[in-house]
Amino acid sequence: MTSAKAGLRAMVDVVFTPSFSVVGTWVSIGILIGGVVAPPIGGLEQEMQLVLTVFLFALILWLTEAVPYVVSSTVASVLLFVFGLVPTFKDAVSGFASTLVFFLLLLLLLGGAISDVGLGKTVANRILSTHSTPRTTVRSLATHMLGLSLLMPSAVARTVTFMPVVDQMTDMYRLSDDSKFRRACYIVVGHLNPVGSMMLMTGGGMAIITSQLINESVRSVTWVQWAIYMIPPMILLFWLSTISVLVVYGINDNLTIEPTNGDRRVEEEDNSEKNSGNDVFAASGADKRGNSALSRDQQIVAAVILGAVVAWITGSFMGLPTIVPAAAAVTLLSVPGVGIVDKNLIADVSWGILFVIGAMFSILNAMETTGTLDYVVGSLIELLPFTTMEPWVVIVALLTLAVFIRSWFSTASAAIVVTLPIIMEFASALSVNQLYLALSVLIIVGSTTFFPFNTTSVLLSYDKGPLSLREVLSFGLVTMLHGSVVIALSWLFYWPLVV
Fold first, then answer.
1. Cβ(325)–Cβ(42) under 8 Å?
2. Which residues form the domain of 37?
3. Which one of 78, 128, 335, 484 is at 20 to 30 Å from 305 when CA atoms are compared?
4. Do 58 and 187 belong together in one domain?
5. Alpha-carbon distances, residue 89 vs 92, 94, 335, 386 (angstroms)
6. CA gap 253, 297 in Å, rounded
7. Which residue, among 196, 198, 130, has the nearest Cα to 159 in the 3D structure?
8. Is 36 inside a domain boundary?
9. Dist. CA 253–CA 260, nearest whole Å
10. 65 with 143, same domain?
């Protein structure tokens, strides 16, 4: 009887106690019904209102995780077809044919292979020493991420590679999965990691697209010139943000891998935890210096990943699509006799993330074909009296416009494609330095993340890590603030010296 009452009470709590997901469900349903029933508002055409309705419906479900990502993303795509916003169902799911979807799938498989063979544990041992503390480890992780961005163009690839490393380091410190250390590390691999991709012209989609637009509409910029323009500002932005992570999370600087006087107790987030360094290294299969022989599978994965990195570097100069090395790497790891990428690893892939990205691209395609995006941007432009503004106010307003447009996109590269041509038109008409402004738009767009789906690496870290929506937004605002400071310093002092 007692268990029956407990079960009944649990059912009542679920039905009548509002939760984040329950509220999200009802809000999304209200948005959907309102968007369909209400007449077009604010000068919108009917199909424009409907596509915005689908976008907001999906956005609420994604943010509240009211239903699995696969379900909400599939429903959003179906609604595009049901409402007649696309001519065929093929068009409603066109976003799933995006290169990014398949590229991310391949990278998730590579990340799973790294984790399955224990290579992340080995890399963690290389990063850590017996004198490492959580604070020094976060700095070391940031250093590795920044350095690797010069070699591995894809920020997503770096995120997938280092997430298992972060989890292993958390275990080695014997900290909880929700510890400040792990949260800080996931901010580094999610939010800060993409900053490094802007240092080189071939560093990623954002930089490649921006450099092409600059070459077409402003002036010719070489690979070396780009590096001169962007490396110092990006290093400053990266370390300003890293310092903010350390300050905000107050990472422990006393906990070490190996105790100095036998077993001792240390505190992390007001919780006492025993630290026994010898047991940690024994469990990881490494000696006290963190050195251990690689197994056969680890050697294979390490060699394949290294080959993919080399192919990415050389391919960036030869025009080789970044998806090709990733596809070759996964193929090599799945052939008979190797079999590291198998059906179990494929089943463990975060399919929900892939569906979110595919659905978002489908919605964006519908926004473009229906003219919704142009209408939203055009309406915003009409509200801003650029001709009466001071030059610096114009620049701030244009960058603010870039941030607003960026918040609608699931990748910074897509946001750059839409945003930069519009901003450059204003720069030309208002006699603003176009080169400076183009670089500034890249920095502000690349450093801004409001929602997890805005940046793929953040979406991965949010899905797999301990981060909350509040943390994603908070550090998106922090990096945006730091990006604004870096833009101001570069515009006033650095770029005039080197351009």
1. no
2. 14-89
3. 128
4. no
5. 5, 9, 35, 42
6. 35
7. 196
8. yes
9. 14
10. no
In terms of DSSP H, where are the helices of 321-433?
323-334, 343-347, 351-369, 372-383, 391-406, 412-429
Q: Is the same domain home to 421 and 450? A: yes
Residue in this structure with the two tokens 């502000």, named with its chain if needed: 444
Residue 270 covered by a domain: yes
- Domain end residue (candidates: 64, 89, 114): 89
133, 255: one domain:
yes
Do residues 416 and 330 share a domain?
A: no
What number of CA atoms fall less than 13 Å from residue 347's CA on the CB side?
Answer: 3
- Answering whether pTM is above 0.85, one says no
* The residue count for the chain: 499
Rg of the chain taking only CA atoms, in angstroms: 24
CB-CB contact of 128 with 290 (8 Å): yes
Co-location of 321 and 382 in the same domain: no
Burial tier of 227 (Cβ tally within 10 Å: 0-12, 13-18, 19+) = middle
Degrees, nearest 5: CA angle 245-249-254: 110
Residues 59 and 140 in one domain: no
Measured N-to-C along each axis, helices 323-334 and 296-318 cross at an angle, to the nearest 10 degrees, of 160
Q: pLDDT of the chain along its 499 residues, tens only? A: 444 444 444 444 444 445 767 888 889 899 999 988 888 887 788 889 999 999 889 888 887 778 888 899 999 999 999 999 999 999 999 988 877 788 778 877 887 787 778 776 666 667 666 577 888 888 888 888 888 777 665 677 788 878 888 888 888 888 888 889 999 999 999 888 888 888 877 666 677 777 777 877 778 777 788 888 999 999 999 999 999 999 888 877 777 665 444 444 443 444 434 333 333 333 334 444 445 577 888 889 889 888 887 887 777 677 787 788 889 999 999 999 888 888 888 887 778 878 887 888 888 889 888 888 778 767 766 776 666 777 788 788 888 888 887 887 666 776 776 677 667 767 776 677 888 999 999 999 888 888 887 888 888 888 888 888 888 889 889 999 999 999 999 999 999 998 7
Total domains, the chain: 3
